[in-house]
Amino acid sequence: MTATSPATNALLLLLRLRTFVALFLVLAFFSVMAPNFLTTANAVIVSKHVALNAFLAIGMTFVIITGGIDLSVGSIVGLCAMVAGWLVLNGVDTGMGYTIWFNTYEIVGLVMLVGVGVGLINGILITRLNVAPFIATLGTLYIARGAALLSSGGRTFPNLNGTEEMGTASFPFIGTGTILGLPFMVWLLIAVAVGAHYISRRTPLGRHIYAVGGNERGAALSGVKVNRIKLFVYMFSGFCAALVGLIIASQLQASHPATGETFELNAIAAAVLGGTSMSGGRGRITGTIVGAFVIGILSDGLIMMGVSSFWQTVIKGIVIIVAVVIDQAQSRLQARVALAQEAAAAR
Amino acid sequence: MSDHPIGLTIRGGVKVYPGTRALKGVDFDLRMGAVNVLVGENGAGKSTLMKVIAGVESLTEGRVEMGSQPVHFRNKSDAVAHGIGIVFQELNLFPNLSVAENIFIGREPVRGGVDIDTAHQYKAAAALMARLEQDIDPDTPLGHLRVGQQQIVEIAKALAQDARILILDEPTSALSAAEVQVLFRVIRDLTAQGVGIVYISHRLDELIHIGDYITVLRDGVITGARSMEGVDIPWIVRAMIGEGSKEFPRTEPPNFGDEVFRAESVTLPRAGGGNTVDHVSLSVRKGEIVGLYGLMGAGRTEFLECIMAQHPHSRGQFFVDGKPLTEPDVASRIGRGIALIPEDRKRDGLVQIMSIRENITLSALGRFTRLFHLNLRGEAATALDFVKRLTIKIASPENPVSSLSGGNQQKVVIGKALMTGPKILLMDEPSRGIDIGAKAEVFRTMRKLAADGLGILFVTSDLDEVRALSDRILVMANGRITGEFPGDADAAAIIGAASPSTQRSQAA
């Protein structure tokens, strides 16, 4: 039945699992080179570093699969951190002589609304006003960052440890708490990742996300509600960014308006490293997560080896480019194999 | 008329594409200082023959000679160097550049090898516009011009290359009557200077008017070649479609039910005046195959797109089972039982990078969804079932749909449409780009679906096809329905109704 040699199939399998192979290689490399690398304590630290990027990368993956891009996530992180800080410290002054205070749950809800709201604005700009995703999200990148700076006049909101009487004592838990030995934020990441993976593989919504990125016109003529799909992915990306903003504010128990600068680039890097195609239609959540781990482990491992952070930046760039080159090779090989199989079947 | 020297000959020209032989041993003489008319149905091989002459394609077998010297064009610039210019049917222009820049694209006049001599470019372009009697400023961005004017620019581009042989592929399809007269004057002017013109068109009266020699192609074979003297429309039609017709015989007796679909006075305004679709009304009954015949640009595709809610500015009403179709979006129109099989599979019909399974179920995912959970096993089973029912030959439903042949891809598109459980199937050129075998299978499938009670409205510009398949034929020209015929109607009458001459559209 198959018109391909075992060698070709083995190569194809290896290429398909390349992000896992890369992950294994960096793990093995640092386990040997950095003696303290393979310890439970270090694993927890690394996973916390990775988690922040992974949240953003998951949201970014959906956006990129539809053929778009979301440059605003880093700024949404900053804005959401500032909103969280403001609500913990200042509450909301009604202007009528009293101030409304919110407990942790309410703050979380409001901050998430802000993140999803910015995503909704992105989506509306892109679907209703036909602004190119790059431009729309570049605009909101500046607007959200400016709003974050304005909220505090550029200053940091300090001491966000919360108080019992306001019901905010649990605020630090989001970024620092642990459940069953695992950081709460890692549990959160697992939940978001599983949810996103489920959406992408097992729901019509997920299928439609791929269809929009593969052929927007064809998808529309097949009855896919393209605008709704796009609204969803930008809102989901905003949702993920809001989570990161909350976690950082809670972790540091302070929020600074520059929080999240250039995070969008790391998120794009993780998605691309995980096999997401910038031209849309292709990508997997599992790949993105592994991609985020490869980048995170690379940075942390190199630090432990004492490699200069300047070199880290160079190495990160090389890894991304190599990943994309391998990705191209895989696509070509896969297409060739499928063509050969179908040509054989048609005969 | 025999004083026209032969400028280019093709002997034994064969062109093989994967799966089809587009030209089967063609002998063609191109006479200089005359208009050589080339006519034939879509897919007869006209465009392939012209692409060979223009260096876009090369022959698989046979030879091309110019002045008894064999020539071999490796690419288009090779042909241009031999003095051959071509105006393609599809415009190859840049809407973002000016008229002058378009005319000189790729061979810009430069000063000292550095910068573009815009003054010279402007002057030359203005002279060409004057010659074509057009009041167009060469600095105008091309995108601001009407399609007819753009076509004139395309012609000017070919003229600017001082071609000795000029190929015009359907040059008048977007021109107004006045513009056609100008073009004819320019053609006469060129032939007087000894230029050899190859003129391709579907407008038969126009061909007889302008042509000096005529060559008729059918299925890659030349079925008639002579001087234009004494040629009339019936002769051309006979040569085009032959005496015997390709048959796709009906196996079941027609069994029409109630009206399933009706369009009333559907109109789509064209930007810049006029209507692309002009008050079209029609109806289709259950089990009936209605063929909508017309030339390219007659508004057929746009009409189908109106039904599929692709043109929010269109007016008129549709009814499914007698109830008005008011849903504004594609998804709910699919829900009402309408399914479209678009003309351009690649662009509109399929998501090329998705798998066969994912494509075939894309419009009907609701079938496999409970709440929001997609039942992948059920999906795979149904996909496989449709693959079997439509006899799609595949190795694995998980392979990307792009790995399939055109015929199998088309069946995937049909499968996708059928999976939505439609009442009326709209098919736009269902046999385009697929080989004879797959064509016959697609037609058999259409017959079977109709026998099962589906109403089918299909668009085609193939005369054989529309006569062989249709229970009823509607002819469309210039956006209007210009004729209605029974399925076995006379070919000449159908061609006559489809020929968009200016007098008829004014009279209608």
From TrEMBL, chain A:
Q: Which UniProt keywords apply?
A: Cell inner membrane, Cell membrane, Membrane, Transmembrane, Transmembrane helix, Transport
Where it sits in the cell: the answer is: Cell membrane
One GO CC term of this entry? plasma membrane
Coiled coil start-end = none
* Pfam families the UniProt entry points to: BPD_transp_2
Q: Please report the record's description of how this protein sits within the membrane.
A: Multi-pass membrane protein
Q: Where are the transmembrane segments?
A: 20-38, 50-69, 75-92, 104-125, 131-150, 171-199, 231-249, 285-303
* Molecular function terms, GO-annotated: transmembrane transporter activity
Does Cell inner membrane show up as a keyword for this record?
A: yes
The protein's name in its UniProt record: Sugar ABC transporter permease
Species the sequence originates in: Neogemmobacter tilapiae
TrEMBL record, chain B:
Sequence ranges assigned to domain ABC transporter in this UniProt record: 8-244, 261-503
The protein's UniProt keywords, in alphabetical order, are: ATP-binding, Cell membrane, Membrane, Nucleotide-binding, Repeat, Sugar transport, Translocase, Transport
Task: Tell me the CDD domains matching this sequence.
Answer: ABC_Carb_Monos_I, ABC_Carb_Monos_II
* Coiled-coil region(s): none
Q: Does the keyword Transcription apply?
A: no
List, alphabetically, the Gene3D superfamilies matched: P-loop containing nucleotide triphosphate hydrolases
Q: Where are the transmembrane segments?
A: none
User: Entry's SUPFAM superfamilies?
Assistant: P-loop containing nucleoside triphosphate hydrolases
Provide a Gene Ontology MF annotation, just one. Answer: ATP binding
- Keyword set includes Repeat: yes
PANTHER family linked to this entry:
CARBOHYDRATE TRANSPORT ATP-BINDING PROTEIN MG119-RELATED (PTHR43790), D-ALLOSE IMPORT ATP-BINDING PROTEIN ALSA-RELATED (PTHR43790:SF3)
Query: Could you identify this protein by its name?
Result: Sugar ABC transporter ATP-binding protein
Q: Which organism is it from?
A: Neogemmobacter tilapiae
Q: What is the lineage of its organism?
A: Bacteria, Pseudomonadati, Pseudomonadota, Alphaproteobacteria, Rhodobacterales
